[in-house]
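Fold it.
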Amino acid sequence: MSFSLSLKKEICQNRTFIYAHKQAVCLGLLLFGRSFDERHITLDTESQPVSRLYSELVYELVEIRTSITATEQILGNNRRLYAVTIDAADDRQRILNYFAPVYQHFLRCGAEDAEENEFLRGVLCGAFLSCANLSDPRRSYHLEMTLHGGTSAAAARSLLDRFGIAYRETERRGIRLLYTKSSEEIEDVLTLLGAGKSALVVMNVKVYKDMRNRVNRRTNCETANLDRTISAGTVSAAQIRLIEETVGIDALPENLRQIARLRLENPDMPLSELAQLVSPPVSRSGAHYRLQQIARFSLQLSNPEKGGEKL
């Protein structure tokens, strides 16, 4: 089962919340379904619990005279599509009449009022079950709502705006999509939906990813430092070997002879550690200064015109 289907199952099982806000939840299911007008009232979903909840709430709230038709279609890869439709025109009209004032109440609601906030949470819950999908956070953060009409698109924008959820818009094959790739926004939505288990999964994945990224950055930094150390040590060792092969290390002053021999013996050693091997030990900057003097002497031997000062 995908992460999104598991999440929807979790929401459907939260009966306490759903039945405390069943008008709002049902409005969200209907309004954000595939169609919601006089000609068609239809929901398409890959979640069987959602299809059952849709039928259950409509039956409970509205006096339906004929049955609601639910069909199952096998899509492949263990995926199934559940289509729920209201067949009779008079039943569709009854549903539209019943939810007309509920929809008007939705338009007037403000998230600042506690009671109205709860109502909007119910609508968001139904909307998410009806038209939203959330990718597995272990792969990516991506929450999107697929909107099949202008009314549902406007309602979705209004709903997310009132909760302060930032989103972007796009189109895919002529269908409007609202989406977010922000882990913080996704956590906020899951919290509003009362999906504590799934919200915790997203938070844990985020902590893991942040920790892994910090470790990777530190490792990359240490690797870069090591590469620089090896590179610098290799250059110094080459300069010292040039001196050794031309005039001999004994041509260097005593304070430089010692560190020259230490560098040849330890070409990969960090400069701070090399400085401690000098007798008596010197600071890192002191060791660096001595190696610079050796470098100038080596340059003078290889190219007297550019050698600079003599030791």
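The chain has a mean pLDDT of 83.
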